[in-house]
Specification:
Length: 240
């Protein structure tokens, strides 16, 4: 039987590429989404991947949704915590609401996604936790105190989970994408986006598939000794 993979925010952008690549690699895949029913239905039509709607910022909703996925597909072996939002503003203009929205979705959302299925992974002695962080968690970013805090937080999460899961056959790793050609990056004002691309030695935005291929590797048995690591995929924009 094929292993089961769950991708949060898995019906659009980088998440859709990840869901599709995992399916193509032979996994049974479930993708979650927060609100865009139309995009999710289109994604399911095109890919054959079932989508589930819940808010990753809510623990009880996440727990119930994860239980439904496991009832439908079987125990989740691979979890890709990808769901994320931006609420960019210079710090002096950032509201408490913008801070909390991003922390709740991007950071608490990782806890809510992994925590309910962690005991099952421990019992079965296998698991792959893959968290989609960001270059901006590594270097910080003007107008992203909230977002950068969550993406740096992801790296603390995977390094800690790696130590807790290693003996139970669970790995926890992060990918830090640079600027990828998704709706999120296209929402940045054009002038700002052009100045960002000028800072990328590769001279272009990344492709969602270039992140998805990293996920497929981290999900595989071949990556079993890689634990607590971060793969940076940013066209040489930033080195840790
Ligand atoms: N570095 C230094 N200064 C900057 C800057 C930067 N990166 N970006 C903007 N500024 C400056 C502007 O030049 C302007 O200066 P002046 O007042 O002297 O003209 C000032 O900051 C902007 O002030 P505003 O009051 O006009 O700012 P605003 O309230 O309108 O906010 C913004 C504008 C939200 C910052 C907008 O410029 C923006 O969206 N910037 C992009 C932020 C960004 O890179 N986000 C990443 C999104 S993609 C992502 O997050 C995916 C991922 O993981 C990589």
């Amino acid at each position: 039987m094929s292993r089961v993979a769950l991708v949060t925010g898995g019906s659009r952008g980088i998440g859709a590429a990840i869901s599709t690549a995992l399916k193509d690699a032979g996994y049974s895949v479930a993708a979650t989404y927060a609100g865009n029913d139309e995009a999710a239905a289109k994604f399911t039509d095109e890919s054959g991947i079932k989508t589930y709607k819940w808010n990753v910022a809510d623990y009880d909703e996440s727990k119930a949704g994860l239980a439904q996925v496991e009832a439908d597909l079987g125990p989740i072996d691979i979890v890709v915590a990808n769901a994320g939002i931006t609420r960019d503003a210079p710090f002096h203009k950032m509201t408490p609401e913008q801070w909390h929205q991003v922390i709740d979705t991007n950071l608490t959302g990782v806890f809510n996604t992994v925590h309910p299925i962690w005991p099952g992974m421990r019992e079965r002695k296998f698991g792959r936790v893959i968290v989609i962080s960001s270059i901006n968690g590594q270097k910080g970013q003007f107008a992203q105190v909230n977002y950068a805090a969550t993406k740096a937080g992801d790296l603390g999460i995977i390094k800690s989970l790696a130590q807790e899961g290693a003996r139970a056959g669970i790995t926890a790793n992060a990918i830090c994408p640079g600027y990828i050609g998704t709706d999120m990056v296209m929402a940045v004002p054009e002038k700002v986006r052009e100045s960002i691309i000028a800072q990328i030695p590769a001279g272009r935005l990344g492709e969602p598939d270039e992140i998805a291929r990293c996920v497929v590797f981290l999900a595989s048995d071949d990556s079993g000794f890689i634990n607590g690591s971060t793969i940076s995929a940013n066209g040489a924009q930033f080195f840790v």
